[in-house]
C-alpha cells in the first residue's frame, strides 16, 4: 500500500496545492503516495455548519469544537488505521528530519489543520492527537504546516528522488548542516571554485566537505552539535515521552 495522508481542514481546496507540482506531483500521479483532504465543516453543527465557538473563560478569537473535530476524525478513520494522528500546532514537538524519516517509513498520517485560536484541548486527548510544530512562529492555519510536513515525507518515499539525490548527505541527516555547493563556471565574478573540488581526489573532497559541514554547523547551529536529539524520530510515531537529558 502506498503512503497515504488524510488531511482534515476547513480549506480542502488548498490541497494538493504545491504538492501537485514537481517531484511530489509526479509521485502523486504515479501513485507512490495519495492524499485525501476532508472538510471539517461537513461535520459542523446546524444549518450554518458551525465548527467553532467562543473560548470558555472568555477572551479573543474562536476555538474549533471538540465534538465537530472528533466527528471529522472518526469519519476519516478507516478500519485498522495505524497511521499516527497529528495535529499541526505551534505548541507541538518541533518537526525534525528524523521525525520526517520515521513518518515516511510508516503507512502515512492523518493530519489535522487547526484554525482560529486552535482546537478544544479535549479532542487532542480524546483522539490521541500528537501535536507537531514546523517552527517557532504563528501561521494563520495548519494547512501550510501540513503541506510542509507532507512534502518533507513524500520526497523520501522510494523512487521519488533520483538515486543521485538520495538525501543522505543533506542538512540534518547526519546531525550537520550541508557543505557548500558549486557548479560551472569555474570562475564567476572573480570567485573561483575551491581548488580541492577540482582535484579529482575523492578522499580529499570528502574530507573538505566534512570539515565545511562541521564549520558551518558550529558557526550557525551549534545546538545541532549538542547531542543525539535529532537522530530519533520515534516520539512522533509512538507518542512516547522524549528521554532527552535536560529537556522534555
Ligand atoms: N493560538 C495558537 C495559535 C493558533 S494559529 C497559539 O498561540 O498557540 C492557528 C492554527 O495554525 C493552529 O491551530 C495550527 O494548526 C496552525 N499553526 C500555526 N502555527 C503553526 C506552527 N508553527 N506549526 C504548526 N502549525 C501551526
From TrEMBL:
Gene3D superfamilies per the UniProt record, alphabetical: 3.40.1280.10, tRNA(m1g37)methyltransferase, domain 2
Coiled-coil ranges (or none): none
Principal location listed in the UniProt entry: cytoplasm
Protein name as annotated: tRNA (guanine-N(1)-)-methyltransferase
Enzyme class: transferase
One Pfam family matching this protein: tRNA_m1G_MT
GO molecular function: tRNA (guanine(37)-N1)-methyltransferase activity
EC number(s) stated in the UniProt entry for this protein: 2.1.1.228
Segments for region (Disordered): 212-248
Alphabetical list of HAMAP family matching this protein: TrmD
Reactions the enzyme catalyzes: guanosine(37) in tRNA + S-adenosyl-L-methionine = N(1)-methylguanosine(37) in tRNA + S-adenosyl-L-homocysteine + H(+)
NCBIfam families noted in UniProt: PRK00026.1, trmD
Subunit and interaction comment: Homodimer.
Gene name of this polypeptide: trmD
Family note: Belongs to the RNA methyltransferase TrmD family.
GO biological process: tRNA N1-guanine methylation
Native species: Faunimonas pinastri
Organism lineage: Bacteria, Pseudomonadati, Pseudomonadota, Alphaproteobacteria, Hyphomicrobiales
Sites where the protein binds S-adenosyl-L-methionine: 114, 134-139
Biased amino acid composition, Low complexity: 224-240
Signal peptide: none
Keywords annotated in UniProt: Cytoplasm, Methyltransferase, S-adenosyl-L-methionine, Transferase, tRNA processing
Role, per record: Specifically methylates guanosine-37 in various tRNAs.
